[in-house]
# Entry
Amino acid sequence: MDVLAIPVKKGESAKIFLEGGNAIRQYLKDLTTSDPSLDLNELVIRHKLTGKAGELLEIPITAGKLTSIYLVGIGEGARADLVKAGSAIGRKLRGSSKKCASLCGGKGTLTRAHALAMALSAYQFKISNSNAIKEAPTFTLIREFDVNQAQAMLAGTLLTRDLIHTPSNMKSPQWMATQVKKALGKFPATVTVHQGAKALSRFGGLTAVGNSSPKRPPAMIEIEYKPKRKRREIPHVVLVGKGIMFDTGGVSLKRPYENMVAMKSDMAGAAAIVGAIRAAVELDVECRITGLLMCAENLLSATSQRPSDVITHYDGQTVEVIDTDAEGRLVLADGLGYAIEKLNPDYLIDLATLTGAATLGLSRHYAAMYTRDENLAKKFSRAGEESGDRVWHMPLVDEYSESLRSNIADFKNIAEKPSVGGGSITAALFLEKFVGDSRWVHFDIAGVGRSDSDSGENPKGGTGFGVRLLTEWLQTL
# Structure
């Protein structure tokens, strides 16, 4: 072991946090015995540590095989504090091959949260022939927690981040299909790719968006998982994800242009579903899962759809396209309609980086959650708090539906100005028109799906939001 992370708790005077059982006490005893001059609480006082969550002091040491110890502030020891502490450790060790043992943690999911924070904050992604990433730190937790569960969530989230961070000139709907098959190849899941004019003849939204890129055409990637052993009647969960590989806005070109730089992450919803299914299958969750990844590019070309076009979706409903930059809801609508007609879901969930309005309303700490099922909303809220992928239950305001009315089609794809505002709400109301009477939940992850900077557990770029949330919830079914 190269590094030992020791918790410092906030209080009237910061102190080494000695709670947590004999294993932690033995670690500290061995450390101080091998170096009698090492008085940990004296170090806290000397360096005026406050114990504030995320505070970190590195002390070089020669005790045993250690190269240094980290005195790490854990605040009051709450979940958010332990995440900040883990993020500080992980980011400190990012890019190294050091092995770190952390004495931080708490009961059950608190230690899991700390462990995941360390690993997630150490994430790197780089494309370079001369400077490839070869080193990554290794983390050990002394406190007990469900390691298999944490490892599955971590693997799923890292997979999702890799898919998001891949540049759009390297990824396409067909590339995505290949990556899904590779990621799930060793698991009991089947992958079917629906593409081509005949296969997508009823997918009016997906083709209207994806036909803007004839060399990288649209596809729906269908993933199916059925557990090998069933001890009871199991529910069927259908997950629908927005998979826009790059979004220029189409004819309704994004302005200012620098807003396009992050648009390789506009497939974060579909990527999160891949990661969540990978985690769920590894944990052998006892439910049937179908993932529908609605993949396309939204480009500006001679074959792009135009504002004022009318398209017919999978379920036969017609939509007047007012803004081609509101393309995510068009591809999702086909996936939702397909799920209702073909799959008979017990639960119908969609994830999408859908609206800037969700980011304005909830910033980058909560995803906007829409559903009329109060019990289901409460379960997802609990799963969000436990997993760290937090959600906020938003209202579906029926009075706003009038703003989607069209004179020449069943409805419009956005609320035209002057409108009621509430762009995230009206987008959810649009999607609700395609879900029938299913137990449906929509997650608008535009704010939480990507980060503008290295912050906490998240790197600049794709966060992998949704993997832990869905994995946590699926295990409760």
User: Anything to note?
Assistant: The mean pLDDT is 93. Residues 147-165 form the longest helix (19 residues). The first strand starts at residue 3 and ends at 9.
